[in-house]
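User: Okay, second chain of the day. Same drill as before: sequence in, structure tokens out.
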Amino acid sequence: MEEKKNAFFNSLVKNRWLMIIIFAVLSIAGIVMFFNTKVVYDLSSFAPRNSNTSDAVAVLKTEFDDKGSFYLMVKDISEEEAGILQDELSKIDGVAVVAFDKSKNYINNSAFFTISLTDYDSTNEANDTISSIAEKMESAEFYMSGQSALSYYTRLETIDSILKVGIIILVAILMMLAFTSKTFFELLVLLLNFGVAVILNMGTNFLFNGISYISHLVGLILQLALSLDYSIILLHRFMEERAIYDAKTAVINALKKGTPEILSSSLTTIAGLCALLVMTLPIGVEMGLSLAKSIVFSLLAVMFFMPALLVIFDKQLQKTKHKNFVPSVVRPAKAILKFRTPISIAFLIILVLAGTGQFFNEYSYNINGAKRILDSQDHIAEDFGYKNDLAIVIPKGDYEKEKALIEFMKSKEIITDVTGLSSIEVTDGLYLTDMVTVQSLSGLDIGIPLTEGMLTSLFQMYIDEKDPTTEISAEEYPVMFIDLMQVASAKISEVFPGIEDTDYGKQLEQLSMARANFEGETYSRIMFNINSPTESKESLALIDDLTTELSVFYEEYYMAGESVACYDMAKVFPKDNLLISLLTVLFVLLILFFTFKNAFLPVLLILVIQGGVWINFVIPFLSSTPVSFIGYLLVCAIQMGATIDYGIVLTNRYRSTKHLFLTKIEAMAEAENAVFPTIITSGSILTISGLSMGLVASGVVSTMGMLLGIGAATSVMLVLFVLPSLLLVLDRLIDKADYKNIFKKKPKNIL
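Assistant: Same drill. Structure tokens below.
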């Protein structure tokens, strides 16, 4: 086995130029495919499987021609100026309809417009239209809300965040790598290696056939933060060996000694990420896959590409050596280890308290948390109330039952607006779904100048098209008003030439659009507004009530909306949380059992890192801050899978070298000193990456980043200050738990 391993490492060094060519070709392909990767900013398709939202979205996509729409509020504008602005907005490319009712939508010198687009949410065309409107309004105080505006703001903040976070992390990496380096040229080697790994990962994201902006944004950052220590481990091992051997031999020896640490570190990280695959929320599954894929590419780059770089650039590495900037930590480590027993006891007490406290956290389930959209919603609410859409989808055809449902919903104080075919009033007492005759329409102001003769002609056109065998005359034939108007929209020019180019013609066209928006082949949709924030207790209580109350009206019904999505996510969170926690621990334990061949040591390492997770999440409890549920699930898996690497590196170094020292304290202090550059570099970069996301990004990405940054810092502190004490206090027990001691063969009794 050892000979095969040596032969493999020898072949890597021997074929180093082949490795360079292969990775160069793959990198070029990755760059090409990166620009063909679709990024998804509308997260409705990432709703929990088999939930209200996922079922409703499936029906909505097949039944309705859902174009984009959003709300616009303009402050400090006169009523006359608002009317002029309505006309100007209507003429912008990509705008279908601008709705503005002066009696309802003008309050306190503020105008409120509902804008429908000709393109779908999240498309480049829809975003260009909203961008044009924003540019037009730049001299005014305005706020936008609604799904299309949310997608627009999310895209803006994502692009802005990638640039800012990228700069911060790049500077942090260069500073940390320079500080812990032994030669200046190693920075270029590390950046080349990581750059190739990133390109390969980002270039294969096209395989998802559309990747969420969250995965797209955090993938690059977390790949760096989670996998940089693999290349650092190999580099530091190489520099140690290079002091004794030539470059080729040093690389081979570095691979021999570093591979177990690199494999165990990468596998524990992959295990933590793979635990996300059991999530009910598809975006969690996607992030687990995309991040696990990034670790695999980083591992491949370190094992196959970096050895070639180390041999090829050996001269440059040797020429740019410099004095060690990292101070020795042997003396402070020895001083701290004198208090190993009280440190161990204190940790166990904190572990119990933190583990208990974090169970009382409150969670936030709103994924769509772009800062600008939340600010806009609050500003709009000051004058016009909250605009929180709720769609209820029901079997079509029974309009009386629809009206009963609408009246029931309107009886709830939290519901302020209703829009559906059976709720749209054409004139006093006449609704779109009412049955009408020529006589009942004669004399009514329906917004279209039709004489009784024209009405008769329209009814006859309807009969000729829909019911040619009827014996009822056109004057007495009953037709649903919206059906009559659709015939009018298609054939009115035959009765009233030129009307299609007038305002009346546009009104008829809008009626046809209304039907397409609110009635499909099988289902009808009714839109309600919840006058309460997306995740308020009142909004979620309403959704909870409706899950049973709607069954009184319909056996089959669907609900969709941001509050519905939050409600669905709250329902699946406990199950996802339990599964991810158990699987993460189980996967990591199995890998550690195999790595250390010890029955107790893996449990100890898990305990330390899990303690870091609990300490991280008890902070929101103590500060009474809600925790993003997806941030919690992702960070739990990432913090466990990634930061346990530090414990593995330290433990492996101590156990493999402790026989070389007179005392165990001295052995531990030297082990800490040896791995300190690796741990502090990787840990600092993960911490800075997380905190920079927390401070610069917004919404769930910001929350996740802050949790990750604090969690990484906590884990580093525990590995450097607590784990060494625990290893010494429990050293005898750990030795007894080695497989070779547990399963050692008893000597045969000769007698």
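The radius of gyration is 33 Å.

User: Thanks, on to the next one.
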